[in-house]
Amino acid sequence: MTDRKQEGLTQLGNKGTKYSFDYDPSVLETFKNAHPDRDYFVKFNFPEFTSLCPITHQPDFATLHISYVPSERMVESKSLKLYLFSFRNHGDFHEDCINKIADDLITLMDPKYLEVWGKFMPRGGISIDPYVNYGKEGTVWEKVAFDRLSTHDMYPEKIDNR
Predict the structure, then answer these.
(1) What pTM was computed for the model?
(2) Under 8 Å CB-to-CB from 19, ≥6 apart: which residues?
(3) Active site residue 97
(4) Residue 42: beta bridge partners?
(5) Structural domain harbouring 137
(6) Is 53 marked active-site?
(7) Contact predicate 96/38, CB 8 Å
């Protein structure tokens, strides 16, 4: 418990969790990466992402995949869950939500590399799957980001789960 408090984590282990129904990046928390000298991926899959269409106000449902290579700080998973939940009543297009999530996580952690991929359920017969990535400027991860983005959909996956 002491380590959590020393890190400044307030969400983890909190029995009085409060859910914000409006976009709220202030709930995001980080902790120190115990292995900053090693490059490794951390991946989150969030199959229950919900936001609202800004025009019709109908709900949009997606599975989000967030992967990153940490630098000094890492995002705490409960705070990430609360943050993603805060999009529930947020009205933005799919592409805007994905870019906003990437921007907030880059600002929060200053990772070496990050990607966010939203796989939205179809509405009106069309599914939209925005993908954004980032590689820290001046590092090998900048080239990795370009390479992954430029070949991202060269071999699209079979879509049979929607």
Answers:
(1) 0.87
(2) 82, 85, 86
(3) no
(4) 68
(5) 38-150
(6) yes
(7) no
Rg over alpha carbons for the chain, rounded to the nearest Å, is 16
Residue 57 assigned as binding residue:
no
- Judged by phi (left if over 0) then psi (alpha if -120 to 50, else beta), residue 57 lies in left
How many structural domains is the chain composed of?
1
Q: Is 94 annotated as a binding residue?
A: yes
Q: What is the pLDDT of residue 9?
A: 74
Q: List the chain residues with pLDDT less than 70.
A: 1-7, 10-15, 154-162
Q: Which of 39, 53, 96, 110 is catalytic?
A: 53
Domain CATH number, residue 49: 3.30.1130.10
Q: How many CB atoms lie within 10 A of CB 58?
A: 9
| Residue 95 marked ligand-binding | yes
- Catalytic annotation, pick one of 3, 24, 37, 60: 60
